[in-house]
Amino acid sequence: GHATESFSDFVVGHGELWSAQLMAAMIRKRGLPCVWMDTREVLVVNPTTSNQADPDYVASEEKLNKWYSLTPAETIVATVSEAVILKTLSYQEAWEMSYFGANVLHPRTIIPVMNYNIPIVIRNVFNLSSPGTTICQPSIKEVEDPPQYSDSIVKGFATIDNLALVNVEGTGMAGVPGTASAIFGAVKDVGANVIMISQASSEHSVCFAVPENEVNAVAEALQKRFKQALEAGRLSQVEVIHDCSILAAVGQRMASTPGVSATLFNALAKANINIRAIAQGCSEYNITVVVKRSDSIKALRAVHSRFYLSKTPLAVGIIGPGLIGGTLLDQLRDQAAVLKEEFNIDLRVMGIIGSTKMVLSDRGMDLQTWRELRKEKGILADLEKFVQHLHGNNFIPNTVIVDCTADSEVAKNYYQWLRKGMHIVTPNKKANSGPLDQ
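and the corresponding structure tokens:
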């Protein structure tokens, strides 16, 4: 038989009731006081189905607390070692972040409390002393004067992976009414979900992102729908770009702050990350870009470090910790605080490699003890692994290799390192004095 929607809602709703009672019983069994409370006794709602989200909250309800087993709302939805806990979020910012992958809140959780202006407090069950993150309506002063009331204009970053980009282009699209309707009508007919849309002002092309597992059906539907236009040359192609990810920057105050987009794109450019598509609504609650899936985490780390860590975060790798390299490391140790405080340069030595040993660090090593670290935790030197660690295994996108050797074999790698977007500082003259074909 077929279960009705109301019966399905009835069964699904009891799952939470049963799990809550089991949890309460387990806590009492361990000798701790615990009382199970039926939320239906304190929350008044109109009968609805799962497709509706507008309950009538009791007028006396002042705050909704949501406990979570991870850190409260952070500046980034990914594995980043230095994510910053946010003190406040607006309802719109929280909704945008939840849409783009923040799993602390479901988007539909926010709608009813936003309608009644009820603050949401996200707390961590493993850190009771932390005040958590408060989601509420910003005051007029916060909106009009963001630099004074906000820790950062951009409140967070998030990604959606496993996407494909579909690009429909052709000169016959310009000025023709109904083209976009026909495109997205075909997408609707196959039941695909459009995550993002971007269109050139010339109307020469329209591109949009869909889940990877739905793109083949979408492409076939578009090929069928525009078969005559493709054969006549009015449309040049229906192109599919696989293995994409969306990176979104979220912040309600971005609309009134010049330069946010420039800072975002500059951070991605310095990390050698190519942008395939861009989308931004006029409300400017988010700026969305499409990048290669393989660049997703790197892109997150790049923009996060640019907005939250330092204007110039540097991941440094030292090749040749001899007399010159050792002296340089000691100088960096002595000047690190000055570089950060006076010049806003957050310099972190992520690796040191010699002829036989190397030592690597994920977050930057303590230069007070770099010699001891190299002796005690040094591993077999491998230049390829060393460079890979610097370039792809840390949260700082700006990488500098300092070659303190006079080794021509090391200098042969400069070209490849530069192509990867890495910077090179060296007293080694071998690279400029060898054969021209190098």
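(Above: one complete record from the training split.) Residues 49-61, 75-79, 146-151 have pLDDT under 50 and may be disordered.
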